[in-house]
Amino acid sequence: MYTTGVRTTSLAPMLAENGTAGVARALSEPSWVEVKWDGIRAIGTWAEGRMLLHARRGTDITARYPELTADGAPFLPVADAIVDGEIVAFDVHGRPSFSLLQNRMHLTRPREIEREVVRTPVVYMLFDLLRLDGHDLTGLPLRERRTLLEDVIADLDAPVQIPPVFDDVDAALAASREFGLEGVVVKDPRSRYRPGQRSPSWLKLKHTRMQEVVVVGIRPGKGDRESTLGSLLLAVPEPDRRRLRYVGRVGTGFTDRILRDLLTRLEPLRIDAAPLDGVPVLDASDALWVRPEVVGEVEFANWTPDGVLRHARWRGLRPDKRPDEIVVES
Prior knowledge:
Helices cover 19% and strands 33% of the residues. By secondary structure, it is of the alpha+beta class. It folds into 2 domains: 2-206, D-amino Acid Aminotransferase, Chain A, domain 1, CATH 3.30.470.30; 209-325, CATH 2.40.50.140. Strands 5, 6, 7, 8, 9 and 10 form a 6-stranded mixed beta sheet that branches. Strands 13, 14, 15, 16, 17 and 20 form a 6-stranded antiparallel beta sheet that branches.
């Protein structure tokens, strides 16, 4: 639902399923391939000359990105619109960096936000248009929504951009790997937009295996990390969504700033007993348990036969996800 007076949106973004190159190639001829940006999903609501931003779960993140929303931000030449896209930070080599974006995505104090706008600039990569001048576009095919989006955004400068669409799955995958990108998303150009649904009409193909996880415990740090934490104990929901399954621990990928931030978030969640069964004795021996509320993301090599993440490395927090929204990657 969308109302111009209050300028609110309850639209949840459409989601992609995991796929393979073979299945993705069969979606359409020619193919419709977009870069998979390593950022955070954001629904943008444009009305009364201002942009509001909401994360995947509906959290209002407008104030965190003033270069997109405050006075002087890009001005859309329409009365109202709802757009879908990804907020991305780029490293010095021009590659999307989820770790850099962590410097922005949790800030709430205006002075800190203002400082990081300069230190960590972002780009809003738009790939869909859901509403335009009072008209619901979700029932239109993707190719038509894209044409309308290009018309709306045509004369805007950074930090709002429309990334290109490619027509060769294999070439796009090879190029994204060569440039160190996360992967690609292949879409059926005839697809309607289905808010909040995960659809086989959109398939994500990733080079690096990644898994969303919920933090269930802390193992104290030693040596240089004695004052912070050594590793996090992780879990994913069981298929019935009523219980959690232990999937191992992660102790690498943290900066000093991330360690401090994690401790600040996890300390108030401390509990006396483990919130799940099945944690190996060695991992549980010195664990400090927490309520399973904080969701993060790790990259990993593969799953062990007993369902544990092998060679996990921390990528960052996912405040846009709830524990029950975690999907176990195959």
